TrEMBL record, chain A:
This is Acetoin utilization deacetylase AcuC. Pfam families: Hist_deacetyl (PF00850). It comes from the Bacteria. Transmembrane segments: none annotated. Residues 79-278 form the Histone deacetylase domain. Coiled coil: none annotated. Gene3D superfamilies: Histone deacetylase domain (3.40.800.20). Belongs to the histone deacetylase family. GO terms for molecular function: histone deacetylase activity.
UniProtKB/TrEMBL annotation, chain B:
Residues 178-458 form the Hydantoinase A/oxoprolinase domain. Pfam families: Hydant_A_N, Hydantoinase_A. This is N-methylhydantoinase A/oxoprolinase/acetone carboxylase, beta subunit. It comes from the Bacteria. GO terms for cellular component: cytosol. GO terms for biological process: glutathione metabolic process. One of its GO terms (molecular function) is 5-oxoprolinase (ATP-hydrolyzing) activity. Residues 3-156 form the Hydantoinase/oxoprolinase N-terminal domain. PANTHER family: 5-OXOPROLINASE (PTHR11365:SF2), 5-OXOPROLINASE RELATED (PTHR11365).
Amino acid sequence: MLRATHKTGLVFFPAFDWAIDPTHPEREERLLYTQDQVFEEGLLDIDGIVELKSDLVNIKDIQRVHFCVPDPWAVITESHLISAGGAKTIGMAVMDGTIERGFALVRPPGHHANRVVHGARGFCNINIEAIMIEYLRRAYGVDRVAIVDTDCHHGDGTQDIYWHDPDTLFISIHQDGRTLYPGSGFLNDFGGPNAAGTTINLPLPPETCDEGFLYAIEHAVLPILEDFQPQLIINSAGQDNHYSDPITNMNFSARGYARLTSMLKADIAVLEGGYAIEGALPYVNAGIIMAMAGLDYSHLREPDFNPDRLHQDPDVTRVIEKTCNYALEIWNKRAAITHTVRKKPDCGERRRQIFYDTDNILETQEETIRICDDCAGALRIDSISDRGVRMLGVTIPRKACSRCIEQGHQWYENGDRNHYRHIFLQDRVTDRYSERKD
Amino acid sequence: MIIGLDVGGTHSDAVLFDSRGLVRDIKVPTNPDNLYETLLTAFDLLMEGQRPEDVKRLVLSTTLATNMVVQNTLPPVAMIVSGGPGIDPEHFRVGDHYYVVRGALDHGGREIEPLDEQQIKAVGEQIRAAGLPYVGVVTKFSVRNPEHELRLAELLAPYVERVFMGHPLSGVLSFPRRIATTFLNAAVYPVHRDFFTAVQESLAQKGIVVPIRILKPDGGNMNMATSLDYPAQTILSGPSASVMGAIAYARADESCLVLDIGGTTTDMAIILDGVPVLASGGIEIGPYKTLIRALQTRSIGIGGDSVVRVRDSQISIGPDRLGRAMAYGGPLPTPTDAFCVLGLADGGDRSRSVQGLTPLAAALQLSVEEIAELIFTTACREILTAARNMVSDINSRPVYTVHEMHEGIQIQPDRMLVLGGPASQFAERLTTLFPGEVMPVPHWQVANAIGCALARTTCEVTVYADTARQVVTAQGEGYHQNIPASFDLGNIREIALELVRKKALARGANPEFVQTEVVEEAQFNMVRGFYTVGKNIRVRAQVKPGLIHGYDPQTETLNRSDL
Ligand SMILES: [Zn+2]
Ligand SMILES: [Zn+2]
């Protein structure tokens, strides 16, 4: 009889009654055929695969990660509470040891949601992986976490949230930002001055095939993970690298995704994008579940799979090899890079404009990080959207040193109420979130 | 008059019911090696002095198929399956004659790979050479498109006596369960056919000529003709007889826990707002996970005759039964002996019960009365714990929409309905341990047979429509029609309700009182590129499980001139 070699939990929440709008890629129908395939394969009946009911996250779980402007209720729907809750449910089950690994097969996705949220960007409102991770850190004392984002789009939201965190290794493999939304995630984006090197971007050229993805996993991702020694590996398992995806240009197959999953051995996978809902998702999702559970997936393939059509161009291969070497070099030389970065006088400042394509909002942001050798550094964010709402957000990091705690409080208390509509403090030391109301 | 007969593992209960209510009830020991004889004995006893021509309805629940599966006495049958991409169908092998052939469909029922007719004919030759008269054919996604199964059946017909297909069994998606269920159908078939044909003939000789109805595990029945196509749907019908026996006493606005406390086991189930809760998957029995629809029930090894021991200074009850209680000549002490000691049992030799409990009492340094109390309370507590676990499992079933998540119905039983031999004794004690009302079901000793007698004919259909392709199908019903692109959920709902009604009538339902309902429905816009090309609509409809029209639980009478 068929039995999973790794006890695998699955939260399946297809949100069959939620859409951004009726014809949007992020619509009710998205996981319908995936459900058909998963059910027909009988995956949930296999010994060692368990289906868990999604829990909801609460507002505190969101505030541990985000500054929502003006407040969480204004930027989320109930569906977001459930999809983040699905990730959290899997995370808790892994930590409790009731499952060995788990997959939150949920929607809506979250990896384009930054720390500051004025609305939806890239179909995402809140970052469901970050909400899960920060909950697990608080509830279970987890410290070192690695996130490997294999969605075709750069996981810019997750990168933003962990830009300054040396305890979170964020690796994103994606189609080159010069050719695809959100247009970021280049090799030299390697993290802030307190966390240089713990953000790793692997932009891959369009038309990358199974061969190229698996090369990047084997030659860049796995060695860095091995070195970083995370307590948990999270896979942001987007499926839009598939050769049939309508909004991207990659050539990854279902069996390739399964193989990637076997190699990565993530503790937790969370579904992100993937919009070839009939021809790819049913097979990719089945493949990920089978690979996580340790089942044989050699009979899995898309109906139109033709390996002859999916040969990687030698030029593409060369670019990927170079990219991987360069990323490894950044990782290996991160101490020296930190030193160089900190020499710049304004290294603690970041000025950016962020476009929310889904909600059509433009945000202007100024960020100040306290350069610190003892912790991730106090962070101050001044943000205004083109809808006119200005906010000041201060984060005191989880393991803040006394001087960063002091700096954080100072920023919070000195914020000018005439200037800012909202002044928020995210105090991760006491796990408290407050808004100044004087 | 109606006959309800429930063949249990230890006892068989039969009732005779008419407009006055319960006319007669009997209990006979079950002979598991000769159920035929058990049935006929029960009939003879029940019908003594009655006019056979007055019997208008006859419903049986038997352990015939269950025993074959549990005792592993199923005859060999051949299975032919085709899977296509996904899990290797080799993993779902059942029996010694299992063939995987070429051919594949996708989740929309589109052909990915055609059947190889030469290969199938070659398999047919092998099956004939092996002397196997029955074959099951199952393809992945056959409920979306039965063409391959139909063609397989056609190609194999010359080689065997009968072919069983997978797609008519259920509209539910699960290839492995479809394989297991089709296998069980084919394997149970010959014994089921011979048995019920023999019963039907014997009854005819006695002058009872009404068609036999057979109880299913979903709390409904089907006529014998239907059962020949779906004999596996008779498996594990016992607990559903009990639930149907209690259902008349469950109000429409509360959730009830039903406990059927027997000699060996206690079966439990939930009735929510007057309707029994169905299991989310199908029956699981032995190594088989099936698509056979069933009530959500749980069984634990604690009953009136369970063996009581002291283990690690604790009372331990069951799960084994080694005959009757000591009070009735059995070998080891049981909860029934505890009742006897406490003066709660009618009859029985109290001194033998005392003798049985004395060493247990000594081991725990208690008096015999104290140990009897402890056994009683322990049995009740363990039953309640199992019930709580079952409720919590139902409450933690996954949901797939924001709406369902929001509704989040959490069952919390308000009342307990108890039936089975020791129901009255247990009900009294459970009252002290359960916050709600505890009520022994009237005629608790035979309420299961009453449930059997009064259960409706049930069935369900699954309808699947694609307005882009302009088709609506219900594969189990052999239904396939073209529809206008403008069809919506309302139209498909109508089709589903009409189909389920027709199906119920074919299975023996009373045309004047068929209560149908939609149990699941969803409609999705299908968007290709940037355009909505159509709707994908899915509707599941059923005959609501319940009792036949005309039964009044208050007066316990039946107001039906035709029965
Ligand atoms: Zn994406
Ligand atoms: Zn610091």
